[in-house]
Specification:
By secondary structure, the chain is of the alpha+beta class. The chain contains 21 helices and 17 strands. A 4-stranded mixed sheet has the order 6-10-12-13, with helices on both faces. The protein is elongated, with a radius of gyration of 40 Å.
C-alpha cells in the first residue's frame, strides 16, 4: 500500500485531481475561498496538501478500530465542513488486497480487472472525427482515463492504452482523411490528445508527427489515384459521346404530320409540307425508321433505298399500335420454321421455363436497382420489397423444379401461373414506388388503359414489339409459333414470348425514370400527347442503343435482343444450351 500512497502524494497526481475539480465549475467551499482564488496560488496549496498527507494527517490504518475512527473524522469533515454527500462507506481488510471501481490494490501491486480493462479499451476506440476535430465524447473519455486511472496504474497498462489510442488515431486518419480539412486542422486536433505512459509522453512530438505524415501520405496517394480516375472517366466520357454520335444516325423517329420521306443522292430526305427538313447521310449506321404519326408518306424510291440498305421501316398508330413494317427480303428466309413447328413438348417446355425465368430475374433486378435509391427515403417500401423478393425467389425455385409429366400435359398454363404470381408482386411494388410521384398508378392495365403510366407502358411495348418481331424474322424463326403464348388468327405468339424477357429493362425502366425525373408528361382522353410520345420513343430508342456488359463484352441492348433470338434459334435447331438474358443492376 505504500506504493499507492507515494503515487498519491506526487505533484502530477494532485495537479490532475485539481484539474478535475476546476472542470466541474463548482463554487467555493464554506471557507469562502473561490476556485479562481485557490488556483492563483495552486503551487503553495499542492505543497501544503503533500505535507499534510506525509505528516500523517491522512493515513492508511493498521486495524479496524483506527479505520472506524478515521472514517468518522473524514465523514465529519466532508459532510459538516465541505457540505458533501457521501456514499455508504466500506471498511475492509487489505492484507489480501481489495478492489474499488475495477482497480485492485495489494501490498505489492496495482492492477485492473479484465472487465474494467475491456471497458477502458472500448472507450478509447470510440474516439471519432467530427466537424474538424475529434469527438467531444471521445476526448472526454480520454480525459477520464488520464484523471482517474493514469495516476495510479502501472506503466504496463498505460503503454497498452497508448498502443490502442495510436491504432485508433491511424484508423481515423485512413478512413476519414477526406473530412480533415488540412494539415493545420489535424495538428490543432492532435494537441487535444495526451498519451498515458511516461515513454510516449516523452515521444509526443515524434508520434504526432508520424500521424501527420500518414495524413499527408493518404492525401497524396488519393491525389495520384484521382488523376488516374479522372483519366479513366475522361476516356469513358469520350467513348460514350462517340457512341451517342454513332447511335444518333442509327434511328430516325418521325412524329410530325405532313412529313414526306424521300431519297436523294445523299440518302434519305425529309420534307414537311414541301419544305426540306434534313438529309440522312448514306452511312451503314441507319438501321430503323420509326413512324409514330398519321399523315406521313414515303416514296417508292425511299422504300427501295431502305430495302437495299436493310433499313426497317416501322409504322405505329397514334395509340401506339404496331401497324406493320417494311422489311427487306433478307429478313424472310424460313430455314428454322420447320424445326420450330416440329419441336417436342418437353423441349418447348424447357425453353418456356428459361424465358420466364429470365423475365422474373429481370423484374427482380430492376426492382433492386430502384430500391437501392429509395429504401432510405421510403421506409414503408422495405416491407413491400421483402415480400416481392420472397415471392420471386419462391417462384424461381418452383419454376426450376417443374417437370413435364408426359407429352400430353399442358405446360403453358402451369408456367404462366408462375409468371402471373411474379407479375402481381412486381406491379404491387411499382405501385408503392410511384406513390409519391402523384401519377395515379393503381394496377397494370393493357387494353382500355386511360392513365398516363399504363398508356406509356403500352406505347413503349409497341416500340419494343416491332424490334423483337424484326429480330425473329432476321434470325429465320416463325413469329407465330409460340412456346408460351398460343397463336390465334396468325398473331405473332413467338414474338410475345421473346418480349417477356425485355419488357422491364427496355421499357419499364425508361417510363419509371421519366416519371421520377418529373419530365413534362401529359395525356388527354387516354391518348398521350405528341410531345410525350416523342420523348418516350426517343428515350426507349436511346435505351435500346445503350451499351451494357453481356457475356463478357459490351453490347447494345438492341444487339443483345438479336443475339438472344439467335441463341434461341440454335437451341431449336440443335441441342445447344440456351441461357436467357438477365440484366445487371
Amino acid at each position: 500500500m505504500e506504493t499507492l500512497f507515494r503515487k498519491l502524494c506526487q505533484t502530477r497526481t494532485l495537479l490532475l485531481a485539481w484539474k478535475t475539480v476546476k472542470q466541474k465549475g463548482s463554487s467555493g467551499g464554506v471557507d469562502g475561498v473561490s476556485i479562481d482564488e485557490y488556483d492563483q496560488d495552486i503551487g503553495s496549496h499542492i505543497t501544503q496538501i503533500q505535507n499534510e498527507l506525509k505528516s500523517g494527517d491522512w493515513k492508511l490504518c493498521k486495524n479496524n478500530e483506527d479505520a472506524e475512527l478515521l472514517l468518522k473524522t473524514c465523514s465529519d469533515y466532508l459532510q459538516n465542513r465541505l457540505l458533501l454527500r457521501l456514499n455508504d462507506p466500506v471498511i475492509g481488510e487489505t492484507k489480501n488486497g481489495f478492489e474499488f471501481l475495477g482497480v485492485r490494490l495489494t501490498n505489492t501491486s496495482i492492477s485492473i480487472s479484465k472487465e474494467k480493462q475491456t471497458k477502458l479499451e472500448m472507450r478509447i476506440r470510440e474516439l471519432s472525427w467530427e466537424e474538424n476535430s475529434f469527438s467531444k465524447e471521445g476526448l472526454k473519455s480520454l480525459d477520464g482515463i488520464h484523471n482517474y486511472y493514469a495516476p495510479i496504474l502501472p506503466d504496463y497498462y498505460l503503454t497498452l492504452f497508448d498502443n490502442i489510442l495510436l491504432g485508433r488515431l491511424e484508423e481515423i486518419i485512413r478512413s476519414d482523411w477526406k473530412a480533415i480539412k488540412n494539415k493545420a486542422a489535424l495538428c490543432a486536433a492532435l494537441k487535444q490528445i495526451c498519451f498515458f505512459s511516461e515513454k510516449n509522453i516523452m515521444l509526443n512530438g515524434q508520434l504526432k508527427g508520424d500521424l501527420v505524415s500518414l495524413f499527408l501520405g493518404e492525401k497524396s496517394r488519393e491525389t495520384s489515384e484521382s488523376a488516374d480516375e479522372k483519366n479513366r472517366k475522361l476516356i469513358k466520357s469520350r467513348k460514350a459521346e462517340y457512341r451517342r454520335k454513332e447511335n444518333a444516325a442509327t434511328e430516325l423517329v418521325i412524329g410530325t404530320y405532313g412529313t414526306y420521306i424521300g431519297v436523294t443522292s445523299s440518302g434519305i430526305s425529309l420534307k414537311v409540307f414541301g419544305k426540306k427538313q434534313a438529309d440522312i447521310p448514306p452511312t451503314q449506321n441507319l438501321k430503323h425508321i420509326t413512324v409514330i404519326s398519321n399523315g406521313v408518306s414515303i416514296s417508292s424510291n425511299a422504300v427501295g433505298y431502305c430495302m437495299d440498305n436493310q433499313i426497317a421501316v416501322d409504322f405505329f398508330s397514334p395509340t401506339g399500335q404496331h401497324q406493320g413494317s417494311i422489311l427487306s427480303n433478307a429478313f424472310m428466309s424460313c430455314s428454322h420454321w420447320h424445326r420450330q413447328v416440329m419441336m417436342s413438348r418437353i423441349k418447348r417446355c424447357e425453353l418456356a421455363k428459361k424465358i420466364i425465368s429470365g423475365k422474373l430475374k429481370n423484374q427482380l433486378n430492376l426492382v433492386k436497382y430502384f430500391h437501392k435509391y429509395h429504401k432510405k427515403q421510403n421506409m414503408n417500401l422495405n416491407e413491400t420489397f421483402d415480400s416481392f423478393s420472397m415471392k420471386i425467389q419462391e417462384n424461381l425455385t418452383n419454376l426450376k423444379n417443374y417437370r413435364l409429366a408426359d407429352e400430353n400435359e399442358d405446360y403453358k398454363e402451369k408456367i404462366m401461373s408462375f409468371e402471373a404470381v411474379g407479375a402481381a408482386a412486381y406491379w404491387d411494388y411499382l405501385k408503392d414506388l410511384l406513390l409519391d410521384d402523384d401519377i395515379g398508378f393503381l394496377r397494370r392495365e393493357r387494353k382500355g388503359a386511360t392513365d398516363l403510366f399504363n398508356c406509356m407502358l403500352n406505347y413503349g411495348y409497341s416500340i419494343l414489339y416491332a424490334r423483337i418481331w424484326q429480330s425473329v424474322l432476321q434470325r429465320r424463326l416463325n413469329p407465330s409459333e409460340g412456346m408460351i403464348h398460343t397463336s390465334r388468327n396468325g398473331s405473332p405468339a413467338f414474338v410475345y414470348d421473346v418480349i417477356e424477357m425485355f419488357r422491364c429493362q427496355a421499357v419499364d425502366r425508361v417510363v419509371i425514370s421519366l416519371v421520377q425525373k418529373k419530365e413534362s408528361l401529359s395525356i388527354d382522353n387516354g391518348r398521350l400527347s405528341d410531345e410525350t410520345k416523342k420523348l418516350l420513343v426517343a428515350n426507349i430508342v436511346e435505351r435500346l442503343n445503350r451499351y451494357e456488359m453481356y457475356r463478357g463484352r459490351e453490347c447494345r441492348l438492341c444487339d443483345i435482343i438479336s443475339l438472344q433470338v439467335r441463341d434461341i434459334g440454335d437451341y431449336i435447331s440443335s441441342d445447344s444450351t440456351y441461357r436467357p438474358y438477365v440484366a445487371k443492376w
